[in-house]
Amino acid sequence: xxxxxxxxxxxxxxxxxxxxxxxxxxxxxxxxxxxxxxxxxxxxxxxxxxxxxxxxxxxxxxxxxxxxxxxxxxxxxxxxxxxxxxxxxxxxxxxxxxxxxxxxxxxxxxxxxxxxxxxxxxxxxxxxxxxxxxxxxxxxxxxxxxxxxxxxxxxxxxxxxxxxxxxxxxxxxxxxxxxxxxxxxxxxxxxxxxxxxxxxxxxxxxxxxxxxxxxxxxxxxxxxxxxxxxxxxxxxxxxxxxxxxxxxxxxxxxxxxxxxxxxxxxxxxxxxxxxxxxxxxxxxxxxxxxxxxxxxxxxxxxxxxxxxxxxxxxxxxxxxxxxxxxxxxxxxxxxxxxxxxxxxxxxxxxxxxxxxxxxxxxxxxxxxxxxxxxxxxxxxxxxxxxxxxxxxxxxxxxxxxxxxxxxxxxxxxxxxxxxxxxxxxxxxxxxxxxxxxxxxxxxxxxxxxxxxxxxxxxxxxxxxxxxxxxxxxxxxxx
Length: 478
What we know:
With 478 residues, the protein is an alpha/beta fold. It has 20 helices and 9 strands. The chain has 3 domains: 2-50 and 152-190, no CATH class; 60-150 and 192-318, no CATH class; 342-465, no CATH class. Helix content is 62%, strand content 8%. It has a 4-stranded mixed β-sheet with strand order 1-2-4-3. A 3-stranded antiparallel β-sheet has the order 7-8-9. Strands 5-6 form a two-stranded parallel ribbon. Helix 7 (171-210) crosses helix 8, helix 14 (342-359) crosses helix 18 and helix 18 (400-418) crosses helix 19.
């Protein structure tokens, strides 16, 4: 890091010296060359000047008065790792925990900050959370957070320098840019290797504090939760918010990650995450397989007693969730939303959307029945080209087949509800049920198209369920 600033000062010195030497020793001055040198030197100087860290709160601030149980655990871990408590603790919309020194310039005048993800608290037990916190406090213990601002600011200054120089295409400025590019390549590789070592050192402190079972027990579910949180938010939470409601976030995420379809979809990505591939030179974290192997081979094998969910440490979770949503969006708008349980989401949010979608294409859907879905699945794109696009949306040509499958799924869901089937629409699972017969309406057409659902088997299921001849929409002429 110091090397970067020494390199910058040396290059600036050379750039400023060129026009001076030409004038002082040669008695002449090439104005164009002098201007390029001075401008290039000024760009480098401007780019490397340290900027003040303007800290933007990442979430909802938590304090010990409102959250006594959580802060009791935080103080216990801080004492066990011989570290001071962070000055500020935030609840953040993520499946993660992190520590940092924020504010000030280059780390000077900064304060300790801890971020705790709502998704992380939902996925872990208290004992596992203690291990995660001990790992994060390990970054304080090793001085990593003091080094962090220097690395971050140096990386930012390096980036500004390269971007600024790249805007100008003179030969001299390309030559000035070259040493910064070479230094940047070396800097990123070296600091990434340092970061990986810091992570393993923090794991060692967590092992001494909480034991290997708690640490490994925290790594596995937190990784699963991290993979699931984005899809949960986009596919489950966002539609409810868009309909004018807000659901219980933590309860929904807990159900989402335990739902069988979600667990199945995460199997392959998790296997890849836990594979023992060597770390990329630019990775800031060692592979999970390496961390788990190191933890399981450690002697600190404290017995992991059964502990309550980490979410139980939070008081007044519904209010915290509303405040978290307000932090992410417009507070006035969020406060105007109505609370809605996940049990009600199916009928209050999804069903009206499906009915609207089906209504705009009832002319085509009235000619279809559940038993004709195999025929439609054979040429979804062509059939989908006949459908109207939703208001305010444009469906790309290569997405027509997916849009057609969704429309047919919505039509099937609507007609089954009209026939008295019960709609189950909890996070991560959606199906209709009648007398023990279950149908997942949005899986039927994709599975028929992919060949994983036999057409004859589906048609027989329709006959057995008594839905084979049902029109998927009412005839608009009637």
